[in-house]
């Protein structure tokens, strides 16, 4: 995730914002597609696994891939915004994702409950970072309320996953639901950004 920077010129700033908005829409659509495919794979291969079970090879791969994909998405956003090393929040999010992937690699050698605990801690912390980024973007890109809601939901879901990891009946269905809701809010964000972009173009045309 990144913080968008703007130039000092009003006309250049508007152009930069438009390019960034278009890029964000595309990236969010890719996120939606990834999440839906991930959910489908979890539901069809691993949803029956409960907290006391050891993850199958497929479940282990899916659990490790998820945080790694978030790191890749963050890298793409950084390149899109051109913030590079100046984006401390994005750097923190990438480090968190990589640490989670390492933690998940260890967790999958134990039980689904252990994996849920790692996933929960990551969802909580990454949700908090998403809230920070979305609030910062409101001044430059706008239409960030879906991401604010999604970030808040991630914080609550993360705390819930961590708490339920000790329950013998907890399963990966909760994680699949979390990812599905995430896809929904990214799709809502795409729609909100599209509406904002059209309004800005209309205003520019009138002016």
**Largest sheet composition:** none
| Beta-strand content | under 5%
SSE sequence, one letter per element? HHHHHH
Task: Tell me how many strands there are.
Answer: 0
Helical content class: over 70%
Q: What is the mean predicted local confidence, pLDDT?
A: 80
Number of helices: 6
Write up what this structure looks like:
The protein is mainly α. The chain is built from 6 helices and no strands. Helix 1 (10-45) packs antiparallel against helix 2, helix 3 packs antiparallel against helix 4 (112-137) and helix 4 (112-137) packs antiparallel against helix 5. The longest helix has 36 residues, at 10-45. It is elongated and about 60 Å long. The two termini are 33 Å apart. The model is unreliable at 1-19 (pLDDT under 50).
Outline of this structure?
The protein is mainly alpha-helical.
Key features?
6 helices; mainly alpha; 207 residues; 78% helix; disordered N terminus; elongated
Secondary structure topology:
Layout: H1 10-45, H2 57-81, H3 88-107, H4 112-137, H5 145-164, H6 173-206
């Amino acid at each position: 995730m990144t913080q968008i920077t703007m130039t000092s010129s009003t006309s250049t700033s508007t152009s930069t914002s438009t390019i960034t908005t278009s890029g964000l829409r595309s990236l969010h659509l890719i996120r939606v597609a990834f999440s839906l495919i991930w959910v489908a794979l979890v539901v069809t291969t691993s949803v029956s696994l409960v907290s006391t079970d050891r993850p199958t090879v497929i479940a282990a791969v899916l659990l490790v891939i998820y945080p790694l994909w978030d790191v890749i998405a963050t890298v793409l956003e950084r390149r899109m915004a051109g913030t590079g090393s100046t984006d401390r929040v994005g750097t923190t999010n990438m480090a968190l994702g990589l640490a989670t992937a390492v933690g998940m690699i260890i967790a999958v050698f134990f039980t689904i409950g252990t994996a849920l605990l790692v996933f929960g801690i990551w969802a909580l912390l990454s949700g908090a970072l998403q809230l920070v980024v979305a609030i910062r973007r409101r001044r430059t890109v706008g239409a960030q309320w879906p991401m604010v809601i999604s970030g808040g939901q991630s914080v609550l879901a993360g705390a819930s996953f961590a708490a339920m990891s000790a329950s013998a009946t907890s399963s990966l269905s909760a994680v699949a639901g979390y990812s599905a809701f995430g896809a929904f809010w990214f799709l809502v964000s795409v729609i909100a950004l599209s509406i904002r972009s059209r309004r800005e173009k209309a205003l520019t045309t009138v002016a």
